[in-house]
Design goal:
The protein has 652 residues and is an alpha/beta fold. It has a twelve-stranded mixed beta sheet, sandwiched between helices. The longest helix has 22 residues. The radius of gyration is 24 Å and the shape is globular.
């Protein structure tokens, strides 16, 4: 199963990329001659300075990959000649705007994927999207031409009782017969068709399958049978979670035709409780990215501003909720992939404690960091979703042994808000001083966080400054560990067990080289190469094991911090949603600097919009003790009620 992961082992750094392509073989040889020279980096005040050297090594890896990009640019240039270079960009843009591929197929004669029933692929077809993603990644000039033809904004959402209803309201009305599940699904499918040509949040949607699920729920209600906790609630699923009824691609060409044999545990639990799956949302390839620009099937756009990114890697999930094309969505968080998109799109996202939700059926990126969590409009909605998907799973031995989450957690805080003037009188709220003192922290984010601190203080909470000495080394350690685990997990995609097999290869090595050359994108190759180097013989002690020691320091700092406070408050990202194509490489990695510490320690973290009424909202995150997911949700729900951020249905 793709959800089962292998343990990172010490490997030879030449092994993986020697089977990829001549260019990658050259890069692998250069790693030994250049990257392994241990370049002198500017030292941070950390007891493990070699971890910092790895980031300098990442810069050299990015420089070495220029040869790969130049090779791809020459290949794209040859294709452009066949497509009339003078007017290629406008034709390409008009094709992506229409969400159809008839004209593009006529020009390029690309092959079609088999389509069953009423399943339709939104955005580029995989065969053409591989070419399209390369065009967008080549530079700002191509992406700016693509952006110029986009609509100015997503169609506005007027007064609509179905689209503005919460999950509990939909469940109640479906149970009482006020609404039918079919009515709810039809309205959300209509909204999806209105917004999808602009934001491209989905990779795959099956309208008939959604209607079949709604019809089953209506039939159960007519027979008088009990309905589930999320009966009739439209949900989107990130495309790295296995779904038996829909293809799962992980945003990569390697899995463009992969049809899973079973559902992921969290997906199966949602379906058993009556959730209606609308489709699979776009993501950075294999979850590697912070902007959702690395998807092989097209770039996702922020519903708040179509010229900006929605965050990543769960950008499609957050965009679908913000655009009201889904009420809830499931995402995955490795180093901030739920929290950052939720902050950029102005919605609520939760990274549960590690082990709270089963990872069985989640395509592995970094197994010791991956966490499945919900994205929604309000804390109440994601609590209902978490109550369904949380709990032990015999297929995943890392899950916690407790009984999961109960919906009874929220009514207590509602009563406290009414009965007490200072409901947080016994709560100590720690403020992350290093985060507030960051020079790159945007003034809007700092101001929003200060307003949130004032709100919590007005509710009686004691504000305590908290220091995290290992903060500066956490991001470097994260990328070493995550890339190392990705190097081991992605080695299975060889065209034999997984991946689209390429014809014409004479040997197994040549077939593997062709599969990985075509299937993996530049960012995935870059991270695999970094991880393979960190695990290489002779350097595993200097990098991988040192990063593990820094991870222990981060966990110890959190433990000491929680001796003085009950929850931690910090920004989610140093900046807000940035423009498409504005950041890449190290600059993009730095966007995770405030989210990776909680991931390294496995702690629950909740993202809330600090200024939901703004055109481009900023987010804040509440971090709790390990296993205290309920406490984080209750505190977030209280802030939501007081700050007036409970409903974000009109985000667009």
């Amino acid at each position: 199963m793709s959800c089962l992961t292998s343990r990172p082992t010490t490997v030879n750094s030449r092994l993986f990329f020697s089977r990829t392509s001549p260019v990658q073989g050259y890069v692998a040889s250069e790693v030994h001659s250049v990257l392994l020279q241990r370049p002198q980096a500017q030292r941070w005040s950390c007891r493990y300075p070699r971890v910092t050297e790895a980031l300098t090594g990442m810069r050299k890896v990015s420089a070495l990959c220029i040869g790969v990009r130049q090779w791809q640019r020459r290949r794209v240039h040859r294709v452009e000649k066949q497509l009339a270079p003078s007017d290629f960009a406008p034709k390409f843009s008009s094709w992506t705007d229409s969400c159809g591929t008839a004209q593009y197929r006529q020009r390029t004669r690309t092959r079609q994927l088999p389509v069953s029933r009423n399943r339709w692929w939104i955005g580029p077809k995989p065969a053409a999207a591989h070419f399209a993603s390369r065009i967008v990644c080549l530079g700002e000039s191509s992406s700016s031409k693509l952006r110029a033809t986009r609509a100015a904004s997503v169609p506005a959402l007027g007064p609509d009782p179905i689209l503005q209803a919460s999950a509990s309201e939909i469940v109640e009305k479906v149970q009482t017969g006020t609404w039918t599940a079919m009515q709810v699904v039809e309205r959300y499918l209509q909204r999806l068709q209105e917004t999808e040509p602009h934001i491209h949040a989905y990779i795959n949607v099956d309208e008939q399958f959604a209607r079949e699920q709604a019809a089953l729920i209506d039939q159960k209600r007519e027979r008088g049978e009990a309905l589930g906790l999320v009966a009739g609630v439209p949900i989107s699923i990130k495309d790295n979670l296995l779904t038996r009824a829909l293809p799962t691609t992980a945003g990569s060409l390697l899995l463009e035709n992969y049809q899973p044999a079973e559902d992921a545990t969290c997906v199966r639990r949602l379906r058993e409780q009556g959730a209606i799956i609308l489709g699979k949302t776009a993501l950075d390839e294999f979850g590697m990215g912070s902007s959702s620009e690395n998807c092989a099937f097209g770039v996702v756009r922020n519903p708040r501003d179509l010229t900006r990114v929605p965050g990543g890697s769960s950008g499609g999930s957050a965009a679908s909720v913000a655009a009201s094309s889904a009420l809830l969505s499931l995402g995955s968080d490795t180093g901030g992939s739920i929290r950052q998109p939720a902050a950029f799109c102005g919605v609520v996202g939760l990274k549960p404690s590690y082990g709270r939700v089963s990872r069985y059926g989640l395509i592995a990126y970094a197994s010791s960091l991956d966490t499945v969590g919900p994205i929604g409009r309000s804390v109440e909605d994601i609590t209902r979703c978490l109550a369904v998907i949380a709990g032990p799973d015999p297929h995943d031995l890392t899950t916690l042994a407790d009984t999961g989450i109960s919906l009874d957690a929220l009514p207590d805080i509602e009563e406290a808000l009414v009965e007490e003037r200072k409901p947080l009188a016994n709560i100590r709220l720690g403020v992350w001083t290093e985060a507030l003192e960051m020079p790159q922290l945007a003034s809007e984010a700092r101001l929003a966080l200060q307003e949130a601190i004032a709100t919590f203080s007005s509710l009686g909470a004691s504000v305590v400054p908290v220091s995290m000495p290992s903060f500066q080394a956490a991001c470097a350690a994260y990328y070493i560990l995550a890339s190392s685990e990705a190097s081991a997990n992605l080695a299975r995609y060889d065209g034999v067990r997984y991946g689209v097999r390429q014809d014409g290869a004479r040997t197994a090595a040549e077939m593997t080289r062709r599969v990985r050359t075509r299937g993996f994108g530049p960012e995935v190759k870059r991270r695999i190469m970094l991880g393979t180097f960190a695990l290489s013989a002779g350097y595993v002690d200097a990098y991988y094991r040192r990063a593990m020691q820094v991870r222990r320091l981060v966990a110890d700092d959190f433990w000491r911090a929680f001796q003085h406070c009950d929850f931690l408050l910090s920004p989610v990202s140093p900046t807000g949603a940035f423009a498409l194509g504005a950041k890449a490489g190290i600059d993009l990695y730095a966007e995770d600097v405030l989210t990776v510490p909680a991931s390294l320690a496995g702690l629950p973290a909740l993202t809330l919009p600090a200024n939901p009424s703004a055109r481009l909202p900023t987010g804040m995150q509440l971090i709790g003790r390990f296993g205290d997911d309920v406490g984080v949700l209750r505190l977030g729900r209280l802030y939501e009620r007081v700050a007036g951020a409970a409903s974000l249905a009109n985000a667009t």
